Amino acid sequence: MRFVFLGFLLACVGLVGCVPRSEKDVVVYSALDEDFAFPMLDAFERKVDYDINVISKFDVESTKTVGLVNQIMAEQDRARCDLFWNNEILHTVRLQKLGLLARHDWQVPKDWPVDMIASDSTWCGFAARARVLLVNTDRLKSAVDSAESGKSAVYPSSVSELSDAKWKDDCAIARPLFGTTATHFAVLRELLGREAALAQLQAIADNALVLSGNKQVAQAVSAGRVAWGLTDTDDAMIEKDLGYPVEIVFPDQQPDQLGALRIPNTLAILKNAPHPVAASRLADYLMTPETEDRLAMGRSSQLPISKESKFPPAVLPSTPVRWMRADFEAAAEGWDEWAADVARIYADQ
After folding, report:
1. What is the pLDDT of residues 22-44, one digit of tens each?
2. Domain annotation for the chain: domains and CATH numbers
3. Section 126-145 average pLDDT
4. Listed range (149-153, 156-160, 178-182, 199-203) with the worst mean pLDDT
5. pTM surpassing 0.85?
6. Per residue in 234-275, pLDDT tens?
7. What are the φ/ψ torsions at residue 246 (nearest 5 degrees)?
8. Cα–Cα distance between 79 and 335 in angstroms, integer?
9. How do residues 303-337 score in pLDDT, each as one tens digit?
10. What is the pLDDT of residue 153?
11. Per residue, what are the HEC states of the chain?
């Protein structure tokens, strides 16, 4: 009889173990700047009915995404993070390929762009930034101004012009070892081929001013230090909103060109998350058109992916933008070897 009772007790414990336990905390590692992410995390903590406390870790370094990803890797045997909110995508995909992310039933429409959701449902992209050319309008004339003056248009229109000798030392790029610039050229490697992408990077290193980050590129353009540069929409909009003489150009818009690249924020739940239920609830709360609208309305003017978004960001032009078709999962393949090749090109920059 004693063994029967013990068996019954163990069965009850097993059943209880199958029931999601009450989770009062959720730990978020966020590479999105605190002033953008915190209000939404705070709203979740205050408004939802789950009584969940959000514990946030932000990194303020220029290589913050890499730092947070390295910490997640270091903690993989004893995860502390529940939800990773990345402000880009490539390093999220690296975590996916290492098997450190959990599958999740993302609450997005069936027509969500295929490049904005993981093939195995471990991450989902939303609220993107675009890679754009920022032009100093005191230094260069627009197509309209050029037509009126009888001169040819001088605005650059393609990322490839960073290697054009006519812009020698008068255009700028962020060092393509971190952040969205690294992601951009990893994507181009898949579209152009490895050798062609490396050749383009070498030509750019020989021709353009190489700066530490996209913000520094945007500031160099607004100050007139260079005529134009490749940067992100959020950094470009800051200079534009401050009243500097700059214009934003979405590159490679002709039918025979690749289009402009958009790089989304991503959400991912850690495979061994200490609080998986709370993490799922927070992920579903954030992955909504309302979140995208709030990010679109903010200073970063981020680009909603959802067709249900109601707020068009100020950064978008009046004409539709042709977007590059990106395979981010392919771009993350062989990342360490690719990063080493790029680092050799820019070792002296």
Report:
1. 588 999 999 998 989 999 999 99
2. 24-127+264-312 (3.40.190.10), 130-261+339-345 (3.40.190.10)
3. 89
4. 149-153
5. yes
6. 999 999 999 999 999 999 999 999 999 999 999 999 999 999
7. -130, 155
8. 23
9. 999 999 998 899 999 999 999 999 999 999 999 99
10. 52
11. CHHHHHHHHHHHHHHHHCCCCCCCEEEEEECCCHHHHHHHHHHHHHHCCCCCEEEEEECCCCCHHHHHHHHHHHCHHHCCCCEEEECCCHHHHHHHHCCCECCCCCCCCCCCCHHHECCCCCEEEEEEEEEEEEEECCCCCCHHHHHHHCCCCCCCCCHHHHHCHHHCCCEEEECCCCHHHHHHHHHHHHHHCHHHHHHHHHHHHHHCEEECCHHHHHHHHHCCCCCEEEEEHHHHHHHHHCCCCEEEECCCCCCCCCCECEEEEEEEEECCCCCHHHHHHHHHHHCCHHHHHHHHHCCCCCECCCCCCCCCCCCCCCCCCCECCCCHHHHCCCHHHHHHHHHHHCCCC
Give the tokens for residue 167.
């812009």
Distance CA 225, CA 209 (A): 10
How much is the pLDDT for 299?
Answer: 87
Q: Which two tokens stand for residue 69?
A: 């990803």
Instruction: List Cβ neighbours of 338 (8 Å cut-off, separation of 6 or more).
Output: 186, 189, 194
What is the Cα–Cα distance from 254 to 226, expressed in whole angstroms? Answer: 25
**pLDDT, average across residues 190-200:** 97
Q: How far apart are CA 174 and CA 186, in angstroms?
A: 14
Q: Residue 262, CB half-sphere, CA atoms under 13 Å: how many?
A: 22
